[in-house]
Amino acid sequence: MTGRSEAAELKKAAFAAGCFWGVEKILAEVPGVVSTRVGYAGGKTANPTYEQVSGGRTGHAEAVEVTYDPSKARYEDILLKFWQYHVPTTPNRQGPDIGSQYRSMVFYYDAAQRAAAEDSIRRLDQARIFNDPIVTEVVPSAEFWEAEPYHQKYLKKNPKGYCSHHFQSEKIEQVLKNS
């Protein structure tokens, strides 16, 4: 033991990729992820509500904040799931969900996360995994406003609930795991 508490050793990551219900379910399944919470990030309004965000008035995206144990999960493992379960080439849209609140975003907490996100975009674009260029925004972590309680773990509480996220391609893993 290093003398630091376990909580001090945990790291955070945050992503937006459409409706946060599906993103949370997928990222929570990554081994080493300790917790997730859904909320709103990337906007200008303090303490926004779901109604405000879904109305497109705040500039926020529906987002998921992930807390993970870096001794059990690499940031790149979580990033891989992010790429595999959404379409990062459609601006302000995921499937039938349309609006800036559904845009694709990576919120980085340090220089290493930023570099990993930008490098993965470069590699996926060069490999032409998708028909169009990736439009995912890579931005510094912002104020994360936790969503209302009924949104937390929504698909766990409602297994037949709406989810537009589906596995995209094994090629993504091949590109990102092979330098």
The tally of strands reads 8
Which spans have pLDDT < 50 for at least 5 consecutive residues? Answer: 1-5
Shape: globular
Structural class: alpha+beta
- CATH class, named Alpha Beta
Strand content: 15-25%
Largest sheet: 6 strands, mixed
Strand order of the largest sheet: 7-6-1-3-2-8
What is the element string, with H for helices and E for strands? HEHEHEHEEEHEEHH
Output the CATH homologous superfamily.
Peptide methionine sulphoxide reductase MsrA
CATH architecture: 2-Layer Sandwich
Q: Tell me the number of structural domains.
A: 1
Relative helix content: 25-40%
User: What's the number of helices?
Assistant: 7
The third-level CATH topology is Peptide Methionine Sulfoxide Reductase, Chain A
Q: What is the first-to-last residue Cα distance? A: 33 Å
**Mean pLDDT, nearest integer?**
90
Can you give a write-up of this model?
The protein is of the alpha+beta class. The protein has a single domain (9-177), classed as Peptide Methionine Sulfoxide Reductase, Chain A. It contains 7 helices and 8 strands; from the N terminus they run H-E-H-E-H-E-H-E-E-E-H-E-E-H-H. A 6-stranded mixed β-sheet has the order 7-6-1-3-2-8, with helices on one face. Strands 4-5 form a two-stranded antiparallel ribbon. A hairpin with a 2-residue loop joins strand 4 and strand 5 (97-98). It is globular, with a radius of gyration of 16 Å. Residues 1-5 have low confidence and may be disordered.
